[in-house]
């Protein structure tokens, strides 16, 4: 049985940490990260303000990402997923494979939309998001004004598109909550979803 879980988030919302922690708690769990599909800097467009447009779908090899996800779903056992059982796995989860896909632009890309069982979206208020972003080192480094000029406006744009899409069921999570609280909520939710699939 397969379960695909999608974790989308504002920049520095905590999705990667959450995904890694879930992977350690869930049986036969694998992660595919959208960050692994960025185009090289030379292929990323620049806008009229000189900002590199990384926070748009065109900055990513999305076809390759879809292929990777579909290949995993076709054959999870051969994907090299570690089948070491977490200590607390109940017997009825032995034949379950779980894929967590994490990124920042997952729900605005049509070819992926029929693949998910659960969608989570980690949100952060502007000030906290900007503070976290400023503590991270990026390659290439953020240019002055990049957060306000490109990153935050793109986040708001995509989040609005999501909220206007009534057919899209997304669980919005408060990224300012503790990792423990978020982890506990999402883990319980995934286990519930697995039990539903079993029925």
From TrEMBL:
Q: Which InterPro entries has this protein been placed in?
A: P-loop_NTPase (IPR027417)
The GO biological-process annotations, alphabetized, read as:
NAD+ metabolic process; pyridine nucleotide biosynthetic process
**UniProt-listed SUPFAM superfamilies:** P-loop containing nucleoside triphosphate hydrolases
Keywords assigned: ATP-binding, Kinase, Magnesium, Metal-binding, Nucleotide-binding, Pyridine nucleotide biosynthesis, Transferase
Q: Which GO terms describe its molecular function?
A: ATP binding; metal ion binding; nicotinate riboside kinase activity; ribosylnicotinamide kinase activity
Keyword ATP-binding recorded: yes
Protein's pathway: Cofactor biosynthesis; NAD(+) biosynthesis
Pfam families per record: AAA_18
What does the record give as the reaction this protein catalyses? beta-nicotinamide D-riboside + ATP = beta-nicotinamide D-ribonucleotide + ADP + H(+); beta-D-ribosylnicotinate + ATP = nicotinate beta-D-ribonucleotide + ADP + H(+)
Identify the GO cellular component terms for this protein: cytosol
Q: Known PANTHER family for this protein? A: URIDINE KINASE (PTHR10285)
Record family assignment: Belongs to the uridine kinase family. NRK subfamily.
What protein is this chain from?
NRK1 kinase
């Amino acid at each position: 049985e397969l379960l695909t879980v999608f974790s989308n988030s504002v920049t520095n919302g905590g999705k990667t940490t959450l995904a890694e922690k879930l992977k350690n708690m869930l049986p036969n769990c694998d992660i595919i990260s959208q960050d692994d599909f960025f185009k090289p800097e030379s292929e990323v467009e620049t806008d009229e303000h000189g900002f590199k447009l990384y926070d748009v779908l065109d900055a990513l090899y999305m076809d390759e990402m879809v292929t990777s996800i579909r290949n995993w779903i076709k054959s999870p056992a051969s994907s090299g997923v570690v089948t070491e059982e977490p200590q607390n796995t109940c017997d009825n989860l032995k034949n379950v494979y779980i894929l967590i896909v994490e990124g920042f632009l997952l729900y605005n890309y049509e070819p992926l939309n029929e693949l998910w069982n659960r969608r989570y979206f980690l949100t952060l208020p502007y000030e906290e998001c900007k503070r976290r972003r400023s503590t991270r080192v990026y390659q290439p480094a953020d240019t002055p004004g990049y957060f306000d000029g490109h990153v935050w406006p793109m986040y708001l744009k995509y989040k609005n598109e999501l909220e206007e899409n009534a057919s899209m069921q997304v669980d919005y999570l408060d990224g300012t909550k503790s990792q423990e609280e978020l982890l506990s909520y999402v883990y319980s939710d995934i286990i519930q979803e697995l039990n539903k699939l079993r029925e």
